Amino acid sequence: MNWEGILAPYKQVVEELKVKLKGMRAQFEHESRHSPIEFITARVKPVESIIEKAEKKQIPLNRIQEIQDIAGVRVVCQFVDDIYTVVNMLRERKDLTIIEEKDYVSEKKASGYRSFHMIIEYPVETIHGMKKVLAEIQIRTLAMNFWATNEHSLNYKYKGRIPEEIKARLKIAAEAAFRLDEEMSKIRKEVQEAQRIFHRK
Ligand code: 0O2
Question: 64 C-alpha to center of ligand 1: Å?
Fold first, then answer.
């Protein structure tokens, strides 16, 4: 398979979305307003993982465009409320179509995972014309990101079969991350005021 050719539009999408989201962040900063976006990461799913996911979801390789997260962008926020600010801003945009929303922030997954997922359809211009590509935007807090990154590493280490004892600890850690987000939300105004003073200096 010509993976480089297949993945080229996805690379383009990831780059474009990164530029646009960073642009949103810059506009907030320019207006000296709290940015709901702390940082952005993005990736094109590695070929090995695409093949694995296609097998898991029983999608033949000639239909891999049905896999929703080949292009993936992650928006990391300071506060839980920021997640919904970003979600609402994305809902308003005219340059993408929202296909599906999965709110694992208010309804965590069994693993303890929290994050807001948006599956979008994004039109990308190629030299062969316009192509609509699916992409996944994950929106989560710094605490949710810390947890998910560590859990992801453990899943990789244990090939998806994390021992029960560690799984239980991860659930406790997920609760602690949730409480941390709750506590930070309570002093949000104080934190933001401090950050405004800090930025002015
Ligand atoms: P990677 O390596 O990040 O690309 P579903 O069939 O709906 O259960 P699906 O279609 O994979 O599963 O959608 P879902 O649940 O929205 O998950 C998509 C992505 O969200 C995953 O991609 C992960 O990045 C992240 N995710 C979902 N659940 C968890 C979790 O329990 N822990 C962590 N750390 N991340 C999670 P991939 O392809 O699994 O992995």
Answer: 17
